[in-house]
Please model this.
Amino acid sequence: MRFDKFGLCNTENMLKSAMNHGFAVPAFNAYNMETIQAILSAARLTHSPLIIAISESALKYMGDDILMGIISGAKINPHEQIALHLDHGHSIESCMHAIDIGFSSVMLDFSNRDIDENIDATHNIVRYAHARGASVESELGQLTGFEDENTSNTESVYTDPDTAAKFVSQTGTDSLAIAIGTSHGAYKRHSADETLRFDILSEIQEKIPNTPLVLHGASSIPNYLVDKINKFGGDIKNAMGIDIEQLNFTATHTNICKINIDSDLRLAMTAAVRQDLYKNPQNFNPRKYMDAGRDAIRDACIFLIREVFNSANKI
Ligand code: G3H
Ligand code: 13P
Ligand code: ZN
Model:
């Protein structure tokens, strides 16, 4: 079924608006009813355009029908500017499938393939998606860290600005994810001195000034959440995320128009659930701690929308 039947939008207008009005659209990863409810209520409470990001493994975990049933039940209105996006699609088939079941945007991640293979495949999925009104994100360069349960990179390869220009003109991609020093997961930096490569970002912007850029692996891994997890029985050591001021600068002063956050929300939910279980040792009703987890994700999203991405009231 086409995405507009679910009240969803593609990402074209929201990314264009982000480019022109000094904000970034949040892309928050979801994987069950509670995470979708939390993310949607954050969007609704702040009047922010928003992208619900579903990885291939999250889609497998939920199943197509359950996911689309939840989306349908959420009664999304096109005026809310909500997109449903396949995050890190690793094959043309999985991107096509997502579009066919109602996704309004897909990412074809062939960043670890040969450039010509990436160009060919992206060009194909762009044609398929555009014929159905959906948007396409692609990626050049490689991030370190885990992208899903099966893939990991150990070395970061920054995006080359000249290759980016060639890639965009030959594929017609709607947006481009770039590697400028972020990485997936909770271990992004070894020391607080490591900064994003704004020099590379500037060069990319000069070469492709009209292409909305995307930042993956952008969680800030707040210390207070890691501490809370550890206080209530967890064991997470040496975690460090992206500096929040650099993230805010990126969202408001550059062509980065979409910022992906997963790990911060995982931490928020885990911390809240651990605390709730610890404080209520006799409770065995999952609704109680899931409710605490859901509220924590909603609040983490609201904080990012208001204080970091500047996307509140940008519908
Ligand atoms: O960038 C990838 C996301 O963090 C998704 O992770 O495959 O475990 O859902 P996942
Ligand atoms: P984090 O692990 O930094 O949250 O990255 C999320 C992401 O890029 C999803 O595509
Ligand atoms: Zn990612």
Summary: The radius of gyration is 19 Å. The chain has one domain: 3-309. DSSP finds twelve helices and ten strands in the chain.
